[in-house]
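Field reference: sequence -> structure
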Amino acid sequence: IAEAAYIAGRAMVERQLGAADAKARLQLALRLGYGAAAFELAALAGTPETEAQSMTRFGIGLLQRRAASGDERAAYDLATYYRENANSDEALQAALVWYRKASELGHKRSIFWIARLQMDSATGLYNPAEAADYPNRAAEAGDIEAAQELVKDLTESGDINVDQATFDKWMGRL
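Structure field:
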């Protein structure tokens, strides 16, 4: 129910449908423990800055507690928050730490983001040697976008230096 309320509230915000109803759905999701709803509530138009900061801190704390207790989605949501709001390599490093935690807890999509963060040569996280392994792991876990990234890397001479055998493997599966 919490995730459904979150998805509905977020969709309403994105489509600019009934701000009050969207806020009510996000508040329900948050009351039911869906921490990422705090970030959406903080970003709603008209939210005073002090309230937005408080809501963001609350969301981070809630997600950290849930991730510490083994909630893979909470770790993923926290990583996504740091990645989407990153204004420094330190914030991106926090995202990487939480994506790794989410991956350890079993969240498959997080593997893709570990690779993406380490493939970006514009950041201090750039690590092509380690990044090369993660898209393949993500693809093996069923992430089609990761498999496409592997194929694209070879065809466009990308940063992770995919070899011909890996290209052939994923080209044959796509």
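Note: The radius of gyration is 18 Å.
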